[in-house]
Write a structure and sequence with these properties.
27% strand; single chain; 20 strands; Transcription Regulator spoIIAA; Rossmann fold; six-stranded mixed β-sheet; 10 helices; 29% helix; Archaeosine Trna-guanine Transglycosylase, Chain: A, domain 4; alpha/beta
Length: 392
């Protein structure tokens, strides 16, 4: 195993168990070091601080362990086993009629660069680092060893998440097993999971609890679900007794999946319509018909350099909703941008309310669910934030 050595005093963040080493902290590294390689990390004085995946870029090492240990089958089984046990005791034992959950959440499960979502008997593995990509076969093997009959198929989906400069040209596909069955259940509702071509791993697992909350507010209301993707909020609103639900997304494929998911749960409903249109345009022209809105856009800021434009986007979107919604309406508004803090997001929404001239009150402050844990030593992992607002 190759070693890298840090500059003086650059080990302090590692001693606080932060899982990233930035390139500027490295004093020496071997000339033949390959991206994705497991390396030993040494302090300037030569003490071993742990092991991690080396990569080219601003984040040079993602720490796998703060001990000097091999990254072998025993390691993967131990980490995946601990992740599964946490989900079993905190989620799966208490959540009836559900077989959709996140099993591994990167730094939150001390496996930086790795995401694993489970949909019924299929696990979808997504690598965000070259190191996790290179060890995908080991990860898949350990996954089925730990979960046994609970996972029969492992699909690898990382084409859009791997560093493009690595030039891996990796094809997606099954690492273990194979299936055409793509229907899974969340809180008793059924959804088609598009792990072949869909966003993320095929479904927005992180909004489960927020969808369930929206269901409680939906009865008798006219609901507008913007950036609907596969229609999760729409399906919950229909079960909650919404008078009418309209789903909007710019993607024709997303709208087709939304229609399929509505039909899967409410085959004869006339309370739902879906359109492939620009969300901003539809909101400005038609939103006065609604008294419950969901604003769940894609990340407006993927990095801090984009914060200024993100602020404009969030303010414009929320201000339009506040201006248009019926008196007594409710807005569920979200940001999934890791670069936007919850304080900044709240400020954007405050500015939007001020611009609209409406009286707005906060009913709930929302966040990611328990199967998306935040490593207390890695606060950057708190990415999903939301507000439920009452608009007079």
């Amino acid at each position: 195993m190759n070693s890298i050595q840090l500059k003086p005093k650059k080990e302090e963040s590692l001693l606080r168990f932060h899982p990233w080493i930035f390139s500027g902290a490295i004093a020496q590294k071997p000339a033949n070091l390959e991206e994705g390689e497991v390396v030993r990390v040494l302090s300037h004085s030569g003490d071993c601080l742990g092991v991690g995946h080396f990569q080219i870029g601003s984040i040079a090492v993602r720490m796998l362990s703060f001990d000097n240990r091999p990254i072998d089958n025993a390691f993967w089984k131990e980490r995946i086993g601990k992740a599964y046990e946490m989900r079993r005791t905190t989620l799966l034992d208490h959540l009836a009629d559900n077989n959709i959950y996140r099993l591994v959440h990167g730094e939150g499960d001390m496996l930086p660069g790795l995401i694993i979502d489970v949909y019924n008997h299929t696990a979808v593995v997504q690598a965000h680092s070259v190191g996790m990509h290179k060890q995908r076969e080991d990860i898949a093997k350990a996954l089925v060893e730990v979960l046994g009959n609970n996972v029969e198929n492992v699909y690898y989906k990382s084409e859009t998440t791997l560093p493009y400069k690595a030039n891996l040209h990796e094809k997606e596909g099954f690492l273990i097993g194979n299936t055409n069955e793509n229907v899974a259940k969340e809180n008793g509702l059924q959804f088609h999971i598009d792990w072949l071509k869909g966003q993320k791993t095929g479904f927005f697992v992180d909004q489960r609890e927020n969808r369930h909350l929206l269901e409680k507010y939906a009865k008798g209301r006219r609901v507008l679900n913007l950036f609907c993707y596969t229609g999760g909020f729409s399906v919950y609103a229909l079960r909650g007794g919404a008078e009418y639900v309209c789903s909007i997304d710019s993607s024709e494929k997303a709208i087709e999946l939304t229609r399929q998911n509505v039909a899967l749960n409410f085959p004869d409903t006339s309370r739902h319509e879906a359109y492939a249109e620009d969300a901003f345009k539809y909101l400005q022209q038609n939103a006065a018909d609604y008294d419950l809105m969901v604003l769940d856009p894609p990340a407006f800021a993927k990095h801090r350099d984009a914060l200024r434009n993100a602020a404009k986007g969030y303010i414009r979107l929320n201000a339009a909703a506040f201006r248009q919604i019926r008196p007594g309406g409710i807005v569920f508004t979200f940001s999934c941008s890791q670069a936007v803090s919850k304080e900044q997001f709240r400020l954007f929404v405050f500015t939007a309310a001020q611009q609209s001239g409406r009286k707005v009150r906060i009913l709930h402050q929302l966040h990611q669910p328990i199967d998306h844990p935040i490593n207390i030593y890695h606060p950057e992992g708190e990415y999903l934030k939301g507000l439920v607002l009452f608009v007079e």
